[in-house]
Amino acid sequence: MEYEDFAHRDKQQAPSSNAEYDLKKANIFYAGKFILFAVICFILYNSGQTWVGKIIKTFYKDPVEIGISLVARTTFALMAWFLIHSLMMIGNPNLVDSCQFMTHISWLSLHTIGFFGLWAITWYLPDGFFDNYLKIARFISGFYLLIQIIFLIDLFHQKNEEWVKDDNIGIMSAITIVLTIGFVVVFGLCYHYFTKNCSSNVWIISANLIICISIYFSAMLIDHGSIFTASLVCCYVSYLTSAGLMCEPSCNSLSNGNNSFGFTILASLFTLIWAGYSAFSASYRFDACNCDEEEGQADEFSLSFFHFVFALASVYLSMVVTHWGTKNHSSAWSTDKGTTSKWVNLSASWVTLLIYSWTLFAPKIFPDREF
Questions:
Q1: Structural domain for 156, as ranges
Q2: In the chain, how many domains are there?
Q3: CA of 335: how far to CAs of 68, 100, 270, 277, in Å?
Q4: Are 40 and 74 in contact (CB under 8 A)?
Q5: 303 neighbors 87 (Cβ within 8 angstroms)
Q6: What is the DSSP secondary-structure string of 83-134?
Q7: Domain contains 213
Q8: Helices and strands, number each (H, E), in the chain
Q9: Does 59 map to a domain?
């Protein structure tokens, strides 16, 4: 066993300072490319039918359907591009001088040319192919959101352990107070802005608020619980709740007023940038850029997993921009709107609460098992 451990450490090479810099630079390039094409998809959906829509092979006449088709073609090419990278990087532990690592960090302009080649091919594929792609994309996007939630909760627990270990109790206490006030305020704003002629929203907000308060005090009383982690989770749930309720314009008083268009654009850009950042942070759950000095071994970072996460995020992007493929949606220059988007966000909030509650109560329910 000791020999096997030593052999594994020998294979997992820690990147040098130059290799670490090249790795981070390349990763930022891939993340930046994703965000750039997220914005391009947003533009294509809302205005592409008047220019690019005239040169693609499509039988659609409705502007919304053409916009959805343009987004589907672009995100499919982006997904295929990242997936090809992911398959090329499988099983590579060497982050110094392996062929796979050098391919990841080098010839980035050639990588871009390859993407444009894939993108050009999609312009000539039939509409039926992308209709089926969008149907499958709904399930893939749900899986991607589940991964994001699991990694996010794991990140919250990790930050709590790191700060407790470093004895940053004062800072943790201050952040906990701010986050606690924050999620209560957000729920209060939800009552104010999202309950107009929508009694069902009152029940949704109340249920999420009660559950958040319950797990907050449970984390305070349970031995292995932490109100720092609970406050992070509650803040995230309040964000998902407000984001979900904002998807329904008829119950959203924020959509009224002279500045609603500018607010919509800014909110949409934030959503697209956040999609890129969340994919980037999830892909770094395997981090090779930090070396454990005691063990002399780098934490694992998977090049294949990095690209796989962005492949999933590309599919999810098609849902965000096209309002989950809703063809009768009329909200111009907005993202993630409509009834489907509302329930996706709310479902994500409930899954977050369920998974975090499991981390709190499972050790009590099964005391003989390790968690």
A1: 2-365
A2: 1
A3: 12, 36, 10, 16
A4: yes
A5: no
A6: HHHHHHTTT--B-SS-HHHHHHHS-HHHHHHHHHHHHHHHTTS-HHHHHHHH
A7: yes
A8: 12, 2
A9: yes
pLDDT score recorded for residue 141: 94
CA 112 to chain centroid, in Å, comes to 23
pLDDT average, residue stretch 214-218: 94
Number of neighbouring beta carbons within 10 Å of residue 340: 17
Whether 316 maps to a domain, the answer reads yes
Q: What pTM was computed for the model?
A: 0.85
Contacts of 41 (CB under 8 A, 6+ apart): 70, 71, 74, 75, 317, 318, 321
Amino acid, res. 114? G
Of 15, 9, 10, 67, the residue nearest 287 (C-alpha) = 15
Contact between residue 69 and residue 54 where contact means Cβ atoms under 8 Å apart: no
For the stretch 47-88, pLDDT in tens is: 877 777 667 777 777 878 888 989 999 999 999 999 999 999
What long-range pairs does 255-258 form, CB within 8 A, spacing at least 24?
none
Buried b (16+ CB within 10 A) or exposed e, 44-79: bbbbbbeebbeebebebeeebbbbbbbbbbbbbbbb
Distances (CA, A) of 41 to 1, 35, 75, 108, 116: 51, 10, 8, 22, 14
Specify if 345 maps to a domain: yes
Longest Cα–Cα distance of the chain, Å, equals 70
